[in-house]
Each structure stands twice: as structure tokens, then as C-alpha cells.
Amino acid sequence: MIVYDLTLDLGNVQIRMGSNINSFQLKIPTKLLNRNLASTAEVNSFKSHSGIYECQLVGELDTYFLGNDIYTLEKNAQITDTIELSVQHYSDPYFLKLSSFSLGLLAKECPPDENGEVNAKVTIGISPDTYTDSLENKLKKALLKQHFMVIDGKRIVVNVLDIAIKPEPFGIHLLATT
Predict the structure, then answer these.
(1) Using CA atoms, how far apart are residues 143 and 63, in angstroms rounded to an integer?
(2) CA within 20 to 30 Å of 153's CA: 10, 61, 63, 133, which one?
(3) Which of 94, 97, 76 is nearest to 84 (CA)?
């Protein structure tokens, strides 16, 4: 079984991501736009942006747009900022969706196994100001699982087999070396 190393740096305004596949790295703002808040014409326009991803967790009704070009969509009043400068944002449902979508964006770059799934060990960097054992346990409970989603029309399954949570400077170092 091939297991990929995926890294998330859960910053206060962006999530930085990396994997051991071709030194792939990506940064996205910690913001989501619910597709239901956009007209059909806007949705078609959003899909033409290379910096916008359309994401949905399997089993949920809502689909979201996210990515670096989210500000160009001119829907700022409808954009959900998934982050607050507090420990509570790590358990916010929108933040957890964004974390799952981030894993999916990384997994899109990894060749799946014979079942069409990507197996991963994940290292997560979080702010040292918010790091506690309790927070580490909450994040592990929320993310140490199988994630089913569709990103830009592609079905993605990420099996998170192990999670290491580190204070941000260490997480950033790991991101730079993946």
C-alpha cells in the first residue's frame, strides 16, 4: 500500500498545503462560498477560473467554491470566513469542511490505489498560541477518518491513516521540505 505524506498549515488567513508528490504546494484563503448563493450565470463564470475549485462532501447537499481567486467573484458579502483568531474555529463545521477539501485538493495530485482511494499520513501545523493537547485530540477526532468528496467533478476518497499535529513554525518547516 502506498501512503502519501500530506501537510496542512492551518494559518489564520490561509491554508498552506503540500505533498510529497512532485513537491506539490498550494495556498488558499480560509473562505468558502456556498454555491446556492450564486446565480446559474455566476456559477458558470466561477467554473472558468483556474484559481477556483468546486467542492462537495459526499452525503451533503451543499457545494462550495474556494480558492485563491475567490475574491474575484465579487460575492464578498456571501463568503463565509472559516477562521477566527481563537481555538474555537478549529471545531467550526465550515473550517472542518475546508480542511477536508484541502486534503482532497492534495489527494487530486496523488495516484490513487486500485480502489480509487488515496492513503495518507497528514501533518498539521497550527498556531502555537492555540496549541493544546485537547485541541490536538479534537482535530484528530475530526480528521482521522475517510473523507469522501467531489472536487471539480472528480470523485476523491482520502483515507487519513495517521495525523501528527505540530506548532505552526514546525508545520511550516515540514511544508517547505515536502
Answers:
(1) 19
(2) 10
(3) 94
CA gap 7, 152 in Å, rounded: 21
Taking only Cα atoms into account, the Rg of the chain, rounded to an integer number of angstroms, comes to 16
Residue 111 DSSP code? P
- CA-to-CA distance for 99 and 71, rounded, in angstroms? 19
β-pairing, 146-151 vs 14-19, is unpaired
Closest among 6, 47, 53 to 29, alpha carbons compared: 53
Query: What is the dihedral sign for C-alpha 70, 71, 77, 82?
Result: positive
Q: Which amino acid is at 4?
A: Y
- Do residues 105 and 147 make contact, with C-beta atoms less than 8 angstroms apart? no
Contacts of 165 (CB under 8 A, 6+ apart): 123, 124, 125, 126, 131, 135, 136, 139, 140
3-21: per-residue pLDDT in tens? 999 999 887 778 888 888 8
- The rounded distance, in Å, linking the Cα atoms of 140 and 142 is 5
